[in-house]
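Re: export button greyed out
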Amino acid sequence: MRLLKTTRWLAVACIALTGIVTASAQDKGLENPRSTTFRKTLEGKKVVFLPLSMGFDLTEGWAAVMRQQAKRLNYSFEIRDPAWSTDAGTKALQSLISEKPDLIVAHNPDIQSYARLLAQAQAAGIKVVQINLESNTQTDSYVGADWTEIGEQAAQAVVDKCSPGKGVSTKVAIDTGVPTAASDVFQLDGIYRVLNQHPDIQVVSQQATEYNPEKARSIMDTVLQQHPDLCGAIGIWDNQDTGTASAIQQAGKGSQVFLVTSGGGNKVGCENVENGLFNLYISYNVPLQGEILNAEIARLLLSDSSAGETKTLYFNPLTQITKANVNQRNCWTLDDLK
Amino acid sequence: MGLGAFVRGLFPAGDAGISVPAMDGIFKPNNRLEEAERLLSLSAIDNLAVTPGGLLCSAGTRLFRIEPHGATATAVEIAGFSAPVTFVASAADGRLAVGVEGDGIHIGQPGAWRRIDPRGVNGSCLTAGAFASDGTLFVCVGSREHPARDWKRDLMEGGASGEVFAVGPTDGSCRVVASGLAFPNGVALLGDGRLAISESWRHRIVTIDPKSAARPVAILEDLPAYPSRLSPASGGGLWMALFAPRRQLFELVLREDDYRREMMATIDPDEWIGPELAGSARPDQPLSQGSVRQMGVLKPWAPSRSYGLVARCDRNGVPRESWHSRADGSMHGITSVCEQGGDVYATSRGSGTLLRLAAAANDGGSAHG
Amino acid sequence: MAASDALLRLRYRFVPDRLFGELLTKSWIDNVIPALALVATVLIMVWIIPGFVSVGTFSDLARQLSEFGLVALALTIVILSGGIDLSVGSMFALCVLAALVSMNVLGLPVGVALAATLATGLVCGLLNGVLIGYLRLRAFITTLVTLVIYRALYDIIFPRVASAIVGSMPVSPTWDLIGFGSFRGVPVSFIIFVLIAVGAHIVLSRLRPGWRLRAVGGARRSAYNAGINVKLTVCLAYVASGVLTATAAFLFSARLGSTGADTGIGMEIAVLTAVVLGGVSLGGGRGSVGNAVIGSVLVLILTSGLIRLSMPGSVNQLILGLVLIAAVLFDAKWVKNRGKLLNKVYISPTYLKLAEQTTRGEQDVLAVNDRLGATQLIGLGQVEGPEDVVLDRDDNLYTGTRHGTIVRFLAPDYARSEVFARIGGHPLGLAFAPNGDLLTCVGGMGVYRVAPDGKVAKVTDETNRSLLSVIDDSRLRLPDDLDVAPDGRIFFSEATIRYEMSEWAVDALEGRGNGRLICHDPKTGSTRTVLRGLIFPNGVTICRDGQSLLFAETWACRINRYWFDGPNKGKLEIFLDNLPGYPDNLNRGSDGTYWIALLGMRTRTFDLAMRKPAFRRRMARRIAADEWMFPNINRGCVLRVSASGEIIDALWDKAGENHPSITSTCEHKGWLYLGGVSNNRIGRVRIEGADPEWTSQGDYWGRR
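Workaround output, generated via the alternate export path:
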């Protein structure tokens, strides 16, 4: 390794020397050896993205940003799409372990399923970045939202609207996604941390929607029938909560029920805020996550440390979008990223 | 065309199954021909004709008058010719027409024949004839290429050179009314002046209007056997003699050009695979697997080369009744059937027997209608 | 013409058309097509995915196969029973839940967790089994309903325990071993799978429960009539399915330690695809563990290959769906048409040129006469299929019948008869051994010996298997005629190795050397094939020199002489060629002559067809068997030849009403006895000028 490095430096030195010789005639600037190394190291590397599924804003957004950098820096970027199937995802991950790419970007369906496999992957020398949904295993890096924080912000917003005397009642409903996913497990923790300090807030319903807007719609429909005086609702993901919102609108309680949701901050979510479907939209900003992800990918690929040696994480900042601050800067479309 | 048929049509037919119409429906086999009264045994008995003076029949080179005596009959020779008689027809006025192989048509009465030698037709293959009410004689020529006795060769060569011509009532002038037929082998006049012709190799009955140049129109197709001579049935129907059965093996050989050509070139016609007028005792005759005698019994449904079959059609040309002599019988090779005075007679040329049929059902066009 | 004939002959000698049909008769052919599909898939994957073949791929595949394959086995068992189990996916999810709750939440030992998991599967399977087996509900609807029910249960329980499951990891080395461990590089879970699969294979293919399962699946009513407890068998199939699914779920839990809302969703389709693709017939009764494994590997390779190709997930599912449809379609067509295809391609005619028959005059020795027209009939209507006739020293007449008996007609008038022995198959050739035992070739069975008291014993029913034969030719299919050499060795002919007794005539259409001459030595008890590639070897008779024998090659219309001993040992020459008919049995006659029974007469049209194999093949394919061209076997003829092979007499049944197709003769004291395999009578006729004291027994073994 050392020898290799020395040779490499030697080579760079030689090139630099010839550069000086040829440059003596006219000043053409200096070659930046770090730039060359940066590019050379990244070139030809292999990065694989294992999303929950392709075909929705978050994964498409990240993929678009990651692909851009891969193109720019000339490393290969592939996607293994398990189409919402945990089983297919584990199979893909398992075959990736034997395939040995340089880096895996994993999007966990729940905090357990990939946990051991990710550890195995790192043991096999593959660096692993987890994106937005963590697993129990901490890997080289995690980039994404701090779900606890989202939960706290959402709960705080609902508490502000539904504390005794502020809303029609103190009843709050929670629509979760998949009970074993990080977004559920940690967000609920955040929510209850706040709610536990406000014992007057009543949680009248807490059901899993499996990220399915239709299911979310029917759940909220039922909740509203049982509790026509519902004051607030916390949804776990904007895509599913379009269903929640439409149930609220259908019941004509758009102004009564305060709906908080979170998501990647894409244009559709923003429009829903504008339309008054979502009252508060906590955005974890996909383009930003994508850029951080890119930085992490580049950092890890350049790093000489072996997989799993150092574990870092970065919880990216959140933006609270309401009708008041919906603007171009906070929202994105896929075309913007491409 | 169904999808299946269409798909099959896309591929060469080399392996497609070959089927022949089953003896079914109105042709459901029975033993009525086998059990019919056997009036007379006369070798090579062939064509029956009803005249005012009684029933005539041809056999070999001679012409006989049939004199029934209850359950038997005797044959009285009334004329002899130099070559085998190929057809006999009789007009309402008692005039006869006799086709003699290679010796033209003899018209008139025994002893007072007027010979007509139709030009441009094959005079040795005059297979059938019938007089119209105006005295015109219609004659079938089975094939332009072969004499009547070589009918099998014509079949194997895929012959379709048969003709029908008309002989004027007075001047004896000849006029072809139809050609390109596949062995016309029987003719009868229908009530409206049209002719019914049996086209043996196409297993069908066609009608021809002698007054127009219209193409023949099939009225009865896909017969289960090769049709032979026709005669009018009382009540406007039609009697049909069918001289040999159709078999899958024959149809196969007819499609297998290479095999058939070599068979025709190297083997005696008697031993060919193909229809026959009678079963043969010779050990060198071809056999189908189903015709093997099992436990001393030859199954009646065995695929024999010869068969006896007579059918009666109503005035619309729809078969109404059939008489059979099956593989285990011997009244095979029926070449002629006619109705006289309420009785129906048939000739089994294969066995040389004159039969009187027990006619049954009555549907408006029957023998006793 | 000659050149093209020569080409034709070469083409049929060197192109083994028949192999295709023979391969199709093999029962393993059902597995071959899925296996070929598997090989093709692997090759394609290797071609388009670089680095597909690696140790990692295989250990990865092995791990996946252990779970997926177990569920495939479960479904295979149910499909074999004639049902279907759509609830495997939901059942799987419930069992995973049971395992994880036991391990992660309750912290139970692995053994207890396994028991709990299996119990869950058992209960689920039992519910299916009772509903379908005992309450006779439709399998499809029932398992569709239980699919929904089990899934609903899962959906109710799962959210309540989800956090608890993901919140803790059990500390259990056994659990980890099952999940990740490997033994000499082989994943432990795969070893578990292999053990279960082998066990299931043995149970399904070798043990009674497996046979019963197939019987029930194949023909429920027949199985019931055969005394099988259909209800119980069906019920147990579902229980087995539940337990196997639970086992798979246990392995899954150990591997992932977690579950998601989607666990098991869509599994039934993937597994169904695998099972059908592997060749398990949805109709029930047909399939094996091998099928399930092949299908599973195929589907796993396909899915993981597609994922590695970075195909969008929905496209993967679309492709799997299309594959399932194709497999189901193929299965339906294959089951329906395999027999048909076999019928079409099995018959494989070859080129056989017989010498031109000479035309014969009235004075020819072969001229047709009617000397057999008025035979004395024996046993008319009492015997069916007397292929061979033989007389003992007391003048009693023996013959075999197609009812599987040997009948004895008692001298002197042969009016009375009795069943001498019951064999079970149709006895063909008969001959007396020097000790008075009656030896017989039994169609479909072998060579048997009947002691004078009627006791039956097997002599031999197999010979050495030839190396290059596709069909198993070690068993005797159609032993035809036999004779005994002076030293007691039994020489017998086997007419064809390609057809059963009932289809012997089809062999005529092939005209190939499908038969052989076999020798059994009672001293060593060994049976060896002496000559093979003979064209329907039929009658066998030992010559008077005690060193050679004559045997007939029926479709070749010739008699051969073969020396099995003495200075000419091993020599084979034509004794009599270009016979007018097809020789069947050969027997010694008085005055040093031999009798040849002619089974049928040659016809020129058939001779011509024998030179046109393609014509015969088309005939076999295009027209019904009853219509096939055949030698003329409706006439009877017997030839008498001198020791040097000259035809000296011919006896005919001109009309063929009493004795068509004579298959054997036996001269005895001035009479000639006639048998026919498709006849219902035996005939005897006086031979003018024959020695009235001559008997075959005396000629062979000397006078008593």
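Chains B and A do not touch (no CB pair under 8 Å). The button fix ships in the next patch.
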